[in-house]
Amino acid sequence: MMKVIMYTDGSARGNPDGPGGYGTVLEYTDTKGQLHVKELSCGYKKTTNNRMEMMAAIAGFEALNRPCQVEVYADSQYLIKAFNDHWLEGWIKKGWKRGKNEPVKNVDLWKRLLKAIGPHQVTWHWVKGHNGHPQNERCDRLAVAAAEGNDLQDDV
């Protein structure tokens, strides 16, 4: 099974109703030992940073065309805790409800992310404040560039 390292980042530019963008970097080594890097970025308007982080992960998984062993590094506690602390499992069992019967946010994206993960073996790592991962810094730049692309579209 091919091993892939994925770094994700999302940016809503500090404004939940403003422009946002996500960036994803995939790194893997082929059968001949050659390192490959794939960068993905896109911008969306009027969304939150949590949704950006989820879309960054979705983009990475949807770009994989066969089952892989994936290590995901993200600076989103929301994304990482959902898997490492089994939040998703609890939400699904409760019918996408959380404490005091409150609805879970972003159910559409959680379901899309679960479908994209599908056959992959995934390990999730929280990179607090990026913590020295240069590829995660690159994802941050991709996310900001995607958001700025939306800013430019607003001016047209």
List low-pLDDT spans.
none
Number of helix segments?
5
- β-strand amount: 25-35%
* Helical content band: 40-55%
Strand order of the largest sheet: 3-2-1-4-5
Would you tell me the structural class of the helices and strands?
alpha/beta
**Can you summarize the main beta sheet?**
5 strands, mixed
Shape descriptor: globular
- Using DSSP, what is the number of strands? 5
How far is the N terminus from the C terminus?
Answer: 46 Å
Order of helices and strands: EEEHEHHHEH
Mean pLDDT reading: 88
* Gyration radius from CA atoms, angstroms: 16 Å
Brief characterization of the structure:
By secondary structure, this protein is an alpha/beta fold.
How would you describe the overall organization of this protein?
- α1 (49-63) runs parallel beside α4 (107-117).
- A hairpin with a 7-residue loop joins β1 (2-11) and β2.
- The chain has five helices and five strands.
- The mean pLDDT is 88.
- It has helices at 49-63, 77-84, 87-93, 107-117, 134-155, and strands spanning 2-11, 19-29, 35-45, 68-74, 121-126.
